[in-house]
C-alpha cells in the first residue's frame, strides 16, 4: 500500500537521479531528458495527479540540481507539460510510435525554451548538438512508456 501511494514520486526521483548522474563526456550530449519523459508519461496517464503544478515544482528541483538560474527548467517543463496535458485525450489514442514523435516535438520545445532563457541570462550561442537529447528521448520513449505503464497497472494507480 505504501509503494502504491509513492510510485509517482519515486519514479520522478529516479528520473532526477538519472538526469544528474555522471556520464562519460562522449555520451553526455546524448543524455535523454529523463525527467521530461517521466512527467510526460504521468501527465498522459494520470493528468489529475501529475499536472503543470507538479512540473513546475520538479522543474525547480531540476534547476537546483543542475545549478541553472531558478525558474529556467521550471518554466520550460511547465510549458511542455501544459501542452501535453491539454491534449492528453487525443494523445492517448495515438500509437506509441506516434506518441514518440509528439514527445520529441515537445522535448524540442522544452530544450529550446531552456536554451532561449539561458541565452537571455548569459551569453551562450546555439549549437546543433543541444538537440541530441530530443532524438534520444524519442528513441527511449516506447521503453519508458512500457515500464511506467506496467508499474501503473501492477499497482492499480488511478
UniProtKB/TrEMBL annotation:
It comes from the Bacteria. Belongs to the MreD family. It is found in: Cell inner membrane; Cell membrane. Keywords: Cell inner membrane, Cell membrane, Cell shape, Membrane, Transmembrane, Transmembrane helix. The lineage of its organism: Bacteria, Pseudomonadati, Pseudomonadota, Gammaproteobacteria, Alteromonadales. This is Rod shape-determining protein MreD. The keyword Cell membrane applies. The chain crosses the membrane at residues 51-84, 96-118, 124-148. It comes from Paraglaciecola polaris LMG 21857. GO terms for cellular component: plasma membrane. PANTHER family: ROD SHAPE-DETERMINING PROTEIN MRED. Involved in formation of the rod shape of the cell. May also contribute to regulation of formation of penicillin-binding proteins. Its main location: membrane. InterPro entries: Cell_shape_determining_MreD, MreD_proteobac. It is a multi-pass membrane protein. One of its GO terms (biological process) is regulation of cell shape.
Amino acid at each position: 500500500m505504501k509503494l502504491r501511494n509513492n510510485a509517482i514520486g519515486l519514479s520522478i526521483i529516479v528520473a532526477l537521479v538519472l538526469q544528474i548522474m555522471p556520464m562519460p563526456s562522449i555520451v553526455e550530449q546524448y543524455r535523454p531528458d529523463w525527467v521530461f519523459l517521466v512527467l510526460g508519461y504521468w501527465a498522459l496517464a494520470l493528468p489529475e495527479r501529475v499536472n503543470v503544478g507538479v512540473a513546475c515544482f520538479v522543474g525547480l528541483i531540476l534547476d537546483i540540481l543542475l545549478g541553472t538560474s531558478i525558474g529556467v527548467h521550471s518554466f520550460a517543463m511547465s510549458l511542455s507539460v501544459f501542452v501535453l496535458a491539454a491534449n492528453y485525450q487525443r494523445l492517448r489514442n495515438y500509437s506509441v510510435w506516434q506518441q514518440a514523435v509528439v514527445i520529441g516535438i515537445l522535448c524540442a520545445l522544452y530544450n529550446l525554451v531552456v536554451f532561449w532563457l539561458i541565452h537571455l541570462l548569459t551569453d551562450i550561442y546555439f549549437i546543433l548538438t543541444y538537440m541530441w537529447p530530443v532524438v534520444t528521448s524519442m528513441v527511449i520513449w516506447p521503453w519508458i512508456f512500457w515500464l511506467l505503464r506496467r508499474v501503473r497497472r501492477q499497482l492499480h494507480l488511478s
